[in-house]
Design a protein that fits this description.
Elements (H helix, E strand, L loop, with lengths): L1 H33 L5 H33 L1 H19 L5 H4 L2 H29 L7 H5 L1 H23 L2 H6 L4 H17 L6 H9 L6 H41 L4 H29 L1 H24 L3 H19 L2 H8 L5 H18 L1 H8 L7 H19 L6 H11 L2 H7 L3
Helix pairs in contact: 1-2, 1-3, 1-5, 1-7, 1-9, 1-11, 2-3, 2-5, 2-16, 2-17, 3-5, 3-9, 5-16, 7-12, 11-12, 11-13, 11-14, 11-16, 11-17, 11-18, 12-13, 12-14, 13-14, 13-18, 15-16, 17-18, 19-20
């Protein structure tokens, strides 16, 4: 399990490195380089628009790779999605700017960002099922949390490299070629990930489906036709996690550097400290989910996000590094209380024959609802003077919607479900239902 979990974590970290490095570049340099005729605000909005295109590609990627995963196995998904995302990211680092090729530059940027999203949409389902379907029942939450650590590791890799380049290069050098280096580095990381995953075994549950001939013929159609309500609920439930994460890691970076005069190295350091703590807390929260259930942790996380959004904006507004870090930490701790759990929660909601498609599409639908629009809407809500309370209202509203969606979802932890069923049943029936 440790070897499988590490392979899953490493691949997810590399794919999210590819995805996050674009978000940071969008906040710092892509606006003036690819939309130079726009005002600074409009340029940032346009750059975040290309950032949002990646989220539109993610549900499509989850549908395509989910079909592969449910028809041909989880292993091909792990390799194909990593290769696609890595190639698209390297290509972003090679795109000439608007000054060189005009309008073709942002068009190429949009296309490659969409391909990034397509690959990442397939990655999550394969990586999570690799651990969830190998894990013992009582530790499924813990082992399934390893892929959920991957985004934090990928973010730290991406922004650590950008922070290093920002600190060692002049502004002219960084805007000329330095911002491209993290994209080129994605090629080496993708090769490393493919090497780590080359010997991964197919999961026991998929092998059982193959042997019994019970694989889904058209998994997406089956999910949409028979589980559309569950799909919408999971997408709405996860929206707040995406919204909060990208408000902290992408929007706050642009806001602090452009409106508060905070140096980008300082703000990146604040965000990275908060993300590092988020990564460390992830398996601890997952252990709680194995003991007490998935749904209670998700409800607590949503409620924490709803309560913390106004303090987050107020602390960010101070421009004090320690207080800004505190604001980011509080927001990400609320978010990770949900997202540490969903690696086990979403697969348990779907039958094995449609699990790769259902879990991945639901997860990435949440990305469209919460992640694609948040940097754009938050940037548009900022006023020249005064705290951006509109951003806090927007994020709190999403948290309340997600809270309602989680309230409508069932508990899935098999250990907790059996204990509750035994407690609710008559004594004789409980004894008859006890596992042998």
């Amino acid at each position: 399990m440790l070897r499988l979990a590490f392979a899953s974590l490493a691949g997810t970290a590399i794919e999210f490195y590819d995805f996050f490095v674009y978000g940071t570049a969008a906040a710092l340099v892509l606006g003036p380089l690819f939309f130079p005729s726009f005002s600074p605000l409009a340029g940032t909005l346009a750059a975040f628009g290309t950032f949002g295109v990646g989220f539109l590609g993610r549900p499509l990627g989850s549908a395509v790779f989910g079909h592969i995963g449910d028809r041909f196995g989880r292993r091909p998904v792990l390799l194909g999605s990593l290769l696609l995302t890595g190639l698209a990211t390297v290509a972003v680092g090679c795109v000439p700017t608007y000054a060189s090729i005009g309008a073709a530059a942002p068009v190429l940027l949009l296309l490659l960002r969409f391909l990034q999203g397509l690959g990442l949409g397939g990655e999550w389902g394969g990586a999570v099922l690799l651990t969830a379907e190998h894990a013992p029942e009582g530790r499924r939450g813990l082992w399934s949390s390893f892929p959920q650590i991957g985004p934090a590791v990928g973010f730290l890799l991406a922004n650590g490299l950008i922070l290093t380049l920002s600190g060692t290069l002049t502004d002219a050098q960084f805007h000329s070629w330095g911002w491209r280096v993290p994209f080129w580095a994605a090629g080496l990381l993708a090769l490393t990930g493919l090497w780590l995953r080359r010997s991964v075994e197919e999961t026991p549950q998929f092998r059982a489906l193959t042997e019994t001939g019970r694989r889904a013929e058209a998994p997406l159609a089956e999910v949409v036709r028979g589980h559309w309500r569950l799909l919408l609920l999971t997408g709405g439930a996860l929206a707040v996690g995406y919204a909060v994460f990208y408000a902290v890691t992408t929007w706050s970076l642009a806001y602090a550097t452009e409106h508060l005069g905070v140096r980008r190295t300082v703000m990146l350091s604040c965000i990275m400290a908060a993300v590092a703590l988020k990564g460390l807390v992830t398996p601890l929260v997952a252990v709680l989910a194995d003991r007490h259930g998935r749904r209670p942790l998700c409800l607590i996380g949503c409620a924490a996000c709803a309560v913390w959004m106004f303090p987050f904006v107020a602390l960010l507004r101070t421009a004090d590094p320690l207080l800004m870090t505190l604001g980011c930490v509080g927001a990400l701790l609320g978010m990770v209380t949900m997202f540490a759990v969903v690696g086990a929660y979403l697969p348990e909601l779907y039958a094995p024959r449609i699990r790769c498609t259902g879990a991945a599409v639901g997860y990435n639908l949440g990305g469209v609802l919460g992640g694609a629009l948040t940097p754009i809407v938050a940037t548009a809500l900022v006023r020249e003077s005064g705290p951006p309370w509109g951003v806090a209202v927007y994020l709190t509203g999403i948290a309340l919607v997600s809270l309602a969606c989680f309230a409508l979802l069932p508990e899935t932890n098999p250990v907790v479900v059996r204990v509750r069923a035994a407690a609710d049943a008559p004594k004789g029936a409980a004894e008859a239902a006890a596992p042998l």
